[in-house]
Amino acid sequence: ATTAGPDGTTAILNDPPSSHKSDQTYVVWDESLTKDMLPLANAPRTVCLRARVDVFDGGALFHYGDPTVNGGSFILKTRATDGKMKLKLGGNRDLDDVAVNGDRAWHHYCAAYDAAARVSLYEDGVLLQSKEVALDTASAVGAPPQSTRLHVMAGQATTSDGDSAYWTYLRGAVDDLKIFDVALDAAGAAA
Predict the structure, then answer these.
(1) CA-CA distance, 34 to 145, in Å (whole number)?
(2) Per-residue pLDDT tens digits for 46-62
(3) How far apart are CA 28 and CA 42, in angstroms?
(4) Angle at 27 between CA 24 and CA 28, to 5 degrees
(5) Which helix (H) or strand (E) holds 189?
(6) 20, 22, 125, 151: least buried by Cβ within 10 Å?
(7) Helix (H, G, I), strand (E, B), or coil: what is residue 49?
(8) Beta strands in the chain (DSSP E)
(9) pTM of this structure
(10) How far apart are CA 108 and CA 125, in angstroms?
(11) What is the DSSP letter of 147?
């Protein structure tokens, strides 16, 4: 499904009638397309997109990597509390319960990781949270296929015991996804 984006162009919309996977709208790029596009291992990166979050319920804005490995994922998802997000990096390395605008309007989000091993989350060019953390996304031989696939409006989560995984879907809309092989700062995230 589609809707009008923040600039009036077409954006991807997910407004499911139920939580069944068959009712969801999401995009997955296969690893044959993304293996040379996604910054992997501990390489610097920034993933930016515009999003309108209609429901804060754990749905993911984007996902790549393996969330069952410490520092093995790069997933931006909503929390079950209005106005809260999580940058899931795997294990105990997450930026958790980050306060964002919960106004159900369009906002520009950027998640960045720099050469100094610092991850940062920006909303509309404003730094929300940052911390030092080591990442190693999808560099292991035999890594699960989802590790080098980019999922938009869908993300993998794990149960509290970490033994099983399930998918979560953003209830809202996304537009203008950009991936950089450098870590943007606040000025770059605002552009």
Answers:
(1) 11
(2) 999 999 999 998 888 98
(3) 22
(4) 120
(5) helix 186-190
(6) 22
(7) strand
(8) 2-4, 10-14, 27-29, 45-55, 60-65, 73-78, 84-88, 95-99, 106-113, 118-123, 126-132, 150-152, 154-158, 165-169, 171-180
(9) 0.88
(10) 7
(11) G
